[in-house]
Amino acid sequence: MSDLKGFLDNSFTLEGLPSELADGLTRLARPMKVNQGAILFETGDPGNGCYAILEGSLKVSILSVEGDEQLLAVLGPGDLVGELALLDGRPRSATVTALKAARLAFIDKSAFERFADENPQLYRHMLSIVGKRLRQSNDVLAARSFLPLPGRVAQTLMQLSETFGKPLDNGRILIHYKLSQSEIANMAGAARENVSRVLNDWKRLGTISRISGYYCLERPEVLKQAATL
């Protein structure tokens, strides 16, 4: 489980966790693999634990009242998913599907609770992680409610750069995940045609580019400003 130990040491979601707690979580974790298209859990399923993503990518989605899929997030190596189940024991609030074949580490809720009862600091740390995820969700909801379309697209690209971003020269950021315009539109809550126009405008202005099929944020400061309420 050296991969998981590396995840715990390097992931921003568990940054600052004491080494003895990281070692304890490593012992609790169960490695697993899922194929592309596999569903980890669906909305309403029992919350029986959380997953650390070691390799691959997952999407988090819900269904609208009309039955349309709404993409909430795309997660990659270094992210946790389902961590809320470790704290509240309620059913899953979203569906998580593998966009690519993925290697994961599963931490069972009951095993986590026994370990955390002996190490209360772990509960406090998990609350801080859940709080950060809640703030991110609030930012997305606020963007969809109050930002114009360019701002919503910018917010989506900035969010993706936090998970998949690779720094390049001159402050540029490469989103090292191949996104379709439909995926960006889904996350931004907009029609693909309208999002395509925004992306093409930014390409002409030199705000973004495409490198080998990946989106590159040439001027991330411009996008960050556009994504700010």
From TrEMBL:
A Pfam family the protein falls into: cNMP_binding
HTH crp-type domain boundaries: 147-221
SMART domains given in the database record: cNMP, HTH_CRP
InterPro entries: cNMP-bd_CS (IPR018488), cNMP-bd_dom (IPR000595), cNMP-bd_dom_sf (IPR018490), Env_Response_Regulators (IPR050397), HTH_CRP (IPR012318), RmlC-like_jellyroll (IPR014710), WH-like_DNA-bd_sf (IPR036388), WH_DNA-bd_sf (IPR036390)
Keywords: DNA-binding, Kinase, Transcription, Transcription regulation, Transferase
Entry GO terms, CC: cytosol
Domain Cyclic nucleotide-binding residue range list: 13-133
Gene3D superfamilies: Jelly Rolls, Winged helix-like DNA-binding domain superfamily/Winged helix DNA-binding domain
Molecular function (Gene Ontology), one example: DNA binding
PANTHER family: CRP FAMILY TRANSCRIPTIONAL REGULATORY PROTEIN, HTH-TYPE TRANSCRIPTIONAL REGULATOR ARCR
Protein's recorded name: cAMP-binding domain of CRP or a regulatory subunit of cAMP-dependent protein kinases
Source organism of the structure: Pannonibacter indicus
Taxonomic lineage from the root: Bacteria, Pseudomonadati, Pseudomonadota, Alphaproteobacteria, Hyphomicrobiales
